[in-house]
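Researcher: I'm preparing a figure for a lab meeting and need a structural model of a single chain. I don't have an experimental structure, so a prediction will have to do for now. The sequence is pasted below. Please return the structure as tokens so I can convert it later.
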Amino acid sequence: MLEAFGWGLLAQSSLLVGGLLVCWVTVPSKLVGILGGFGAGAMIAAVSFDLLPESMEHIEAWQTGVWMLVGVAVFLVADAFVEKRFGSAGSGGAMGIIVGSVVDGVPESLILGIQVGVGIPISLGFVAAIFISNFPQAIAPSADLARSGWGPRRLGQVWLLVVLACGVAAAIGFLGTDLSAAVHGDRAAALAAGGLLAMLTNSLMPFSFERGGPLAGAATALGFCLAVLNS
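Model: Understood. Here is the structure written out token by token.
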């Protein structure tokens, strides 16, 4: 279980690093948009070539679709809560991306824990891809939050909670394999895919274009292509 917890922390720890980086390095707004676009492209590739194949390998297509809609619902409910708390613009928009990081990272970590539990070797390439793609995903909203007055302590607390949640999810995935040999992570993969697609449309891609302009679209294509090459 500790091994699974460690893998979950390691894969998602770049969220904390990227989230705190903006407190000491000034990131221009245009670059924030470009980085957000790059992260969006990597996520689209993850949905297409990692999460959906993982889900459809073990359950029927209609079940994958249902669990994707569950993921959409989870994101929309959480995002609505964030908008009510922070507003729909400014820090609220940035927090919506953080919500997407949770919807993405927790099921992703659950799958890692399941792989450890069933004895499937963890692909260092897969972990590296998660680690690297998390940087723009964390930098983009954190830069806006820092401009809104969030300091290192507050940003660190938010991202640390996200990373710890992912570690716990990996441990739960590991424990789940002790309860049932049928645990594969297929539903978690579909849930993450649906939540990510909703977050990309509602939060990250509009956020990126608003700040990066046309270059955000080019960065999205680049992020997608590089992620495909590493898949």
